[in-house]
Structures are given as C-alpha cells and as structure tokens.
Amino acid sequence: MDIKTALFDYLLRLGDDSLILAQRLSAWCGHGPMLEVDLSMSNIGLDLIGQAALFLGYAGEVEGKGRDADKLAFHRDALRFRNCLLVEQPNGDFAQTIARQYVFSTWQRLLFQGLVKSGDPRIAEIAAKALKEIDYHADWSAEWVVRLGDGTAESRDRMIAGFAWMWRFVDELFQVDDVDAAIAKAGIGPSRASLRAGFDAALKKTFDAATLPLMPYPAAVLGGRQGHHSEHLGHLLAEMQFLPRAYPGATW
Amino acid sequence: MSNTLGTTWRDRIMSVLADVPDPEVPVVSIVELGIVRDVREAPPAVVLTPTYTGCPATDVIKSSVRRALDSSNFTDVAVETTLTPPWTTDWISDAGREKLRAYGIAPPPHSGSLRARQAPACPRCGSLNTEEISRFGSTPCKALWRCLSCAEPFDHFKCH
Known about the structure:
heterodimer, A: mainly alpha, Ferritin, 66% helix, 0% strand, B: alpha/beta, GMP Synthetase, Chain A, domain 3, 2 domains, 21% helix, 21% strand, elongated
C-alpha cells in the first residue's frame, strides 16, 4: 500500500470517529438528565466536531481531488466511512452513552498521546491541540462511570448493561490492518496494538473505583475501518446529511 | 514598513486588533485573550490561533478581524490561523484577567502556579469557599462553579 493512500484512509478514520460520535452526542442536546450534563455532552460534541473538521480537511488535501471537510462529511455514503463501530452505536440511556464515551475517550487519549509525536507535523499539531480537550472528556466520563457504577442498584445495573452493549466493539479499536501497519511503519502514528496495555490498566482503575466487575470480552465485531458498518450508521447519516444533500450549496 | 508618525506598521495593526472583542466574552479583546499569535510583515498577515478546536467563535473572530482590517484600510493584510503552539490560558493578559473577573467570570490560574489546582475565588465576593458544579459550561472555555459563601453561581475560565 502506498503511503498517500494509507494516510488518506488513516485521516478518514481519525476524522470519522470524531464526526460520528459528535453527531451522536448532539442528539442529547436538550435531553440530558440535567442541565450541566446536557452542556457537557454538547461541549464534548463540539470539541469532536473541531477535530473532525481538521482531520477531514487535511484528508481532502492529501487526496487532492478538491474535496474539503464538508464535502467529505456530507457527501459520502456509509460504505465510505471509516469510523469504528463503537461510535455509531445508539445513545440508549444515559449509562449506555457514558459507557461508549468512556471507552472511546480513554482509548482516544492513548492514541493521541502517540499522535503528538507523529512524524507528520500536521497530525502532530492537531493531536497536541485536541489532547488538551480529550483529557477533559476522559476524566469526565470516568467520573460518571464511578458515580453510576457505585451509585444505586438501578444506576449500577444500567451502567453494566451499557458496557455490555459496547463491549464487543472494544477489540476493533486495537485492530491493526494494512493501513495501520503502513502508518506505524512510516512513523505517522503509534501501532494500535501497543495501546492495549494502557487501556486495560485505565479501565481496571476506573472499574475498581466504580466497584464494577471486569467483564470478559465477547467475540469482537469488526469491519468499521473497512466500511462494513452496523445498520445504525445509515440512519445516522440520513439525518446528518439530509440538508446539504437536499439543498446543495446551502449556506447560513 | 514604518510610517512618519512614529508608530510602526505593526503597532497600528495591533491597535486595530485591540478593538476586536471576543464574540462570546465581549469584555476582553482578542489580543487580551492571547489568540493573536503573530503580525507578519512579508507577506502581510495576522496569525490567529483557536482557543478550542470546535469553538464556533473561531470563524466569527476571523471575519471580525477581516472587517476591522478592511475598515482601517489594511485590505492587503491576510488573516491566517495556526494550531502550533496550541493556545493556553497562560496567554490571557493580566488586564484581560481583571476584565474577566469584573465581568463575573473567575479568570484561569496560571498553569505553573500553586493555585492551578485550587478552587477559584468567587468573582463577586472574593471567597475561596467555592465548588465546581460542572466541568463544562456555556462555552467550551468555561466551567460552572458556585460560591458557598455568597451562594452565587459563576463561570470559571478553565485552565487550559
């Protein structure tokens, strides 16, 4: 695989993870269990949209076919999206959203700590900027895992059920394919497999504090990075992409 | 590029920028906020940096700067953005911090100071007996706090 093709795909993966999760979080706006939580999820979504715009903008430049971040976000079909399956999972109840956010932000923090040292200066500077924000996301979601897990019997059951939903999508985050191998070899990003130990350690620390049992991982569901998505992504895109597709060129 | 009035070209650009307010916290200018990173002479450009990557104010600020430059006849000066080095609240000037406080927003501590991990003083009564309500507030850069002495809620500009 030539490095330009790998880099374009890698940037789509980074950008799409953030974009799809941001869209999911934005659906909470006005529906959060309390005002402060509503604001938190909207703010995290906003940070993620910022990351997505930077990575997709760069992806368009690497591709060199005149597509900008908006074109890539709004005029691509589900099969062309490269996000992990985790981020497209439905919000469910608040605990399910927190389980998804905790897994994602904990993993993303480790990934971006590696990307800060990327041999690609553009990726390194985006990562340095985003990492400051991701630290907040990871800490915030860990606090909620503890609060719900070590809360009432009801909140604990829901937190466990939330993780049970997300669990089969964890392995995909650490999966290495041709693109990741080429990127790691070129010194552009850390090997995804190398992030696993740090993730497991962080998870154990949070679960211990939350008095939650560490659950065994079920058989992994894979495919998001290759464009094989769950049914949920199509529905999400139908809503997210409707306006720019129905009214091409629409502006504020 | 200096002129005969004793002020340099760069000074005149800076004085234009000093009148551009932050759209979300209009009591401070973008210069006081520390997001003007450079004024370059060749080719002429003002270089800005975003506070948070997804902050919607970033585009508003760019267009405000463009308008301010145009109306002062600096139409040849470009407006650029950079991410490096990433913005930090340490770049907010002392005058900017005081304006934030007077506006009711507890300013961020300097990241290297001993106070960085301490609760901010209430911007209304000055009490240090304050607590965090939420890490995220009305804009990406602020957290919600409340004063346990005077019972007023307030915004705290997050150390970033």
